[in-house]
Amino acid sequence: MDNRFRGIQLTRDAEKKMSVNVAELGLEDLMEGDVVVEVEWTTVNYKDGLAITGKGPVVRRWPMIPGIDCAGTVASSDNPRFKPGDKVILNGFGVGEVHTGAFAAYARLKGDWLIPMPDGMDGRSAMAIGTAGYTAMLSVMALERHGIDPTRGPVVVTGANGGVGTVAIAILGKLGYEVIASTGRPEESEFLKQLGASEIIHRDELSGPAKPLNKERWIGGVDAVGSHTLANVLSMTSYGGAVAACGLAQGMDLPSSVAPFILRGVSLLGIDSVMAPLALREEAWARLVSDLDMAKLDSLSSEIGFDGIVDAAHAIIDGKIRGRVVVNMKQ
Q1: Biggest CA pair distance of the chain
Q2: Is 4 exposed, middle or buried (0-12, 13-18, 19+ CB in 10 A)?
Q3: Domain that holds residue 199
Q4: What is the pLDDT of residues 28-64, one digit of tens each?
Q5: 112 in the same domain as 19
Q6: Which of helix, strand or coil describes residue 138?
Q7: pTM above 0.90, yes or no
Q8: Cβ contacts of residue 143 below 8 Å, gap of 6+?
């Protein structure tokens, strides 16, 4: 294990002005944990973009190494679940927010946060999925638990070109659903259809103020946008349908009414990927191995090295990233 290593460190001065630095770090700069992981692969999620650009209140402890996801090899362990050499995945649990994260050569973590690398998956594929794709799988599983299946009608996916959206479309398409993709980038329509979308609609159809009830258009939805978009999705959901809400790209507000819930029996399913219990995480990752076409995963992923993380963080906030960004920490 190297004594000194590179990492991205966020600091804040007395006036609360944030700085983003590439720093030389040591294990003493990492927070407590019983497993040290050599980070081999990570990814840039929307939340990472908010942290690095300072455009969202993601970081709540300073200084902070951002990065909410990693895949790598256990370097040392005091946890009975893991031994040196084990391949592991980390998503969430406040890593990169209140606990030093993945944008460094090593991360010291709690073993209870880690899951073993599933059979049939490697570190690059795991980070091509990342929190965004894992959240998409949790959303699909929630719809299934509510009885939503391909025979009941189409499912809408908002923010279709983002990390959650692209993976959700690929999963739903493989499972046989008719998928309606909502995007602000109609020039990407062919790409979304290749992933599994049957129909493309412009996000403007959903981004304005919603009626309490609108024409029924879908039986379910995966929404990573929130605000007016989620309100519109709910107003257009068919009787007995359900919408999985997992994001806030448009905003945290929900300017809706009770009408979809009490007149159509629509359910709003909240998806939390950060603190999801271990059994649910392991189920989701096992399902990703079987229910996500890895060839399609490659098509929606781009790869960068450590030096590209900060630029990618700005690009994802500016809406210039399609799909997923994988970071090869060895580059």
Answers
A1: 62
A2: exposed
A3: 131-270
A4: 999 999 999 999 999 999 999 999 999 989 999 999 9
A5: yes
A6: helix
A7: yes
A8: 155, 220, 222, 242, 244, 269
